[in-house]
Amino acid sequence: MDSAAFLLLAFVNAVTLLQVWGTDNVTALYGEVIVIPCNGGAPAPADLMFVKWKYEKDDGTRGDLLIKQVSSVQATVQATDQYAQRVSIDANFSLLISQATLKDQKTFTCMVVSGSNLIEYPVSVLVYKIPSSVQIMDKSKVLQKDKPTMVGTCVAANANPATTFTWKKNGKPLLADGKAVVISSSIKLDPATGLSTTSSTLQYAASKEDFAAVFVCVSTHKLTNQEEELGPFPIYYPSEKVSLEIMSKGPIVEGDNVTLKCHADGNPPPSSFFFHIKGQKMPVVNSDNYTLTNISREAGGEYKCSLADNEKMEASQSIAVSYLDLSLTSSGKVVKALGDTFHVTIEKNASGDPEVSWTKNGKAMEGVKKLQFSKLTYADAGVYVCEVSMTSLTRRQSFELVVEGKPMITSLTKDRADDADSKVLTCEAEGVPEPNFQWSVNSTGVKSSHTNSKVTHKITVTPSVNLTVTCRVSNKLGEDTMTINVSSVFKEKTDKRDSQEDSEDQAKLIVGVVVGLLVAAAIVGLIYWLYMKNSRQGSWKTGEKELGTSEESTKLEDNNHAV
Ligand SMILES: *[C@@H]1O[C@H](CO)[C@@H](O)[C@H](O)[C@H]1NC(C)=O
Ligand SMILES: *[C@@H]1O[C@H](CO)[C@@H](O)[C@H](O)[C@H]1NC(C)=O
Ligand SMILES: *[C@@H]1O[C@H](CO)[C@@H](O)[C@H](O)[C@H]1NC(C)=O
Ligand SMILES: *[C@@H]1O[C@H](CO)[C@@H](O)[C@H](O)[C@H]1NC(C)=O
Ligand SMILES: *[C@@H]1O[C@H](CO)[C@@H](O)[C@H](O)[C@H]1NC(C)=O
Ligand SMILES: *[C@@H]1O[C@H](CO)[C@@H](O)[C@H](O)[C@H]1NC(C)=O
Ligand SMILES: *[C@@H]1O[C@H](CO)[C@@H](O)[C@H](O)[C@H]1NC(C)=O
Ligand SMILES: *[C@@H]1O[C@H](CO)[C@@H](O)[C@H](O)[C@H]1NC(C)=O
Ligand SMILES: *[C@@H]1O[C@H](CO)[C@@H](O)[C@H](O)[C@H]1NC(C)=O
User: Fold this and answer.
1) What is the CATH number of domain 133-236?
2) Ligand 9 pocket test, candidate residues 425, 481, 485, 508, most atoms within 8 A of CB
3) Does domain 3-128 have CATH number 2.60.40.10?
4) What is the DSSP string of 406-463?
5) In the chain, helix, strand, coil percent, each to 5?
């Protein structure tokens, strides 16, 4: 049967005209069935005898694949090479090749033999394969400013034809300029399959503004396009400016803890610094600050900080330390004698010009800058506080001034007591320390508190006889005494130190004189009455009344004494 066909073919070739059509193209997918239509799938001529498929080998020789006769149901496979198992033909005379590989990219020819014609339809086969994957490899973690840094590599594996790559930044194409943008691509061919693996690496010199930039690699292939995203990346750049901060809320005062903080504008921020403290270089690791504890007045001056990895990058600041020392020539308890002179001198050392103010017993002494007394009085005693202040600094010193003096009795008085039976004697004295009281009579006394160097002592006496009472005051510096006459006759008069007379006795004398005069007047009146015998005067009554009153009081007092 086959040999008959060949004979027939040989015959046809001999008698008919051979026609060859222009080459058609067919694209197939890798691994799938290649369908190669004969004559573009056009119906076969009516007097068709058979269709034969053949191909051109790499060496240019002819390879027979199969032959299909109109008269037979089955096609005859003529191929003896790898196509023997892979070729078949369908009802439309299309050649089917299973499991397409790149080696199938050749020209296959369909030969249509009819009673009148022999026409060849060559078809060129292309086998495409989409990349098995598009991936980003070697993705960078950061970008360096102004320095081409690898952003990443895009790889499209096993494709045909080879995938090509382009790069975009924020949606705009990146054009390689060999400086800021460097794109390097390579294609690797798998010798076994002939498939291409394409890779493209982007190197990019970033600017600070690129911190949010998104990079995209675009893979372009005949059958598919794909985009892979990279970024955004942190941008690293070295410090261009360093500054030193002195962390302090107000002026720095001696004894403060002062923290120095070094700032640098690089990214990532530097983590190690040198602090230059009074000529000493102090390394600080994993921190940007250094604390000076308990700063002294001598610590004022210039301080510097620099980057540990670039000491030329440095900054400096100067620190002024405020201080204020205060001492007074007097302190604690100062004891002075009444009438002494007394001066207090303020000694102060300060970084500025401080204000001085004084308070005495908690009250401001307005306008007093210097404390000096030419003659101390008891009133000068008290607690003195000197306050010296300068911006944010205040110092206080205090002392207690005690003015001592011999006691002196300022008054000794007598008064009728409430019960009218007794008399209250009041002795008032001045002196520091507090004087003791002694009386020449036995009585329980009541003492007032010792305030402003003054103190009084009261006793109650009930004299049955005329008494001379002495009040005696004393302290370690001396004593003073004063006496007072207290009569058993009920009469009150104050006895002041400045009037030496006994007023009570004087009063009694006056009463005596008046009584004498009245007696004399009575006698004169009697004589007058004896001579005149006819008239009387009202004044006599008055005189009698006054006399009577006086007598009554005297009697009253006597009665009282008797009781
Ligand atoms: C087939 O492909 C080749 C190149 O591969 C081309 O020159 C030719 O014009 C194509 N033919 C048709 C019909 O598209
Ligand atoms: C043959 O061709 C016709 C028209 O071109 C088509 O409809 C039919 O599906 C084809 N048959 C096969 C087996 O490919
Ligand atoms: C200063 O620091 C020391 C220890 O570092 C601390 O004991 C002290 O209280 C601090 N002084 C002030 C004024 O903060
Ligand atoms: C000083 O640095 C340390 C360590 O980094 C940090 O914990 C601390 O908060 C810093 N102090 C200041 C005042 O910034
Ligand atoms: C601070 O320093 C002074 C001397 O400069 C010292 O007398 C004082 O005790 C120190 N204070 C502290 C809290 O260390
Ligand atoms: C002030 O400073 C001087 C010298 O430093 C010193 O001799 C003096 O004692 C200081 N005075 C006070 C009150 O600290
Ligand atoms: C005072 O009273 C005491 C006893 O209470 C007595 O011993 C003393 O002699 C009395 N002194 C005078 C002066 O009366
Ligand atoms: C007390 O003195 C007054 C005069 O000062 C005198 O009259 C009186 O008799 C005296 N009394 C006694 C009890 O001595
Ligand atoms: C008190 O009376 C006496 C005589 O009784 C007299 O000598 C004396 O001067 C009087 N004293 C005073 C302070 O009056």
Assistant:
1) 2.60.40.10
2) 485
3) yes
4) EEEEEEEEEEE-TTSSSEEEEEEEEEESPPEEEESS---EEE---BTTEEEEEEEE--
5) 15, 50, 35
Ligand 8 pocket at CB < 6 A: 465-466, 487-489, 505, 508
Indicate yes or no: pTM above 0.70: no
CB 406 within 8 A of CB 475: yes
Ligand nearest to the CA of 293: 3
Q: Which atom of ligand 2 is nearest to the CA of 90?
A: 13
* Sequential DSSP letters for 178-232: SSSEEEEEEEEE-TTT--EEEEEEEEE-B-GGGGG--EEEEEE-SS-EEEEEE--
- Fold designation for 324-402: Immunoglobulin-like (2.60.40)
- In Å, how far are 258, 352, 434, 513 from 320, measured between CA atoms? 11, 11, 53, 93
- Ligand 3 nearest atom to the CA of residue 294, by list position: 1
CB of 200 closer than 8 Å to CB of 135: no
Whether residue 128 contacts residue 67, with contact meaning beta carbons closer than 8 Å, is answered with no
The answer to whether 315 and 343 are in contact (CB under 8 A) is no
The beta-strand segments (E) located in 433-560 are 436-439, 445-447, 454-461, 467-475, 478-486
Q: Which pLDDT value is given to residue 563?
A: 33
Residue 168's pLDDT is 96
- Ranges of residues in the chain with a pLDDT under 70 are 1-17, 489-516, 524, 527-529, 531, 533-563
Q: Is the CB of 257 under 6 A from ligand 3?
A: yes
Q: Is 24 in the pocket of ligand 1 (CB under 6 A)?
A: yes
The per-residue pLDDT for 41 is 86
Shortest-distance ligand to the CA of residue 487: 8
Q: What is the CATH number of domain 404-490?
A: 2.60.40.10
* C-beta of 293 in contact with ligand 3 (< 6 A): yes
Find the ligand nearest to 461 CA.
7
pLDDT for 512: 60
Residue reference for tokens 């300029």: 177
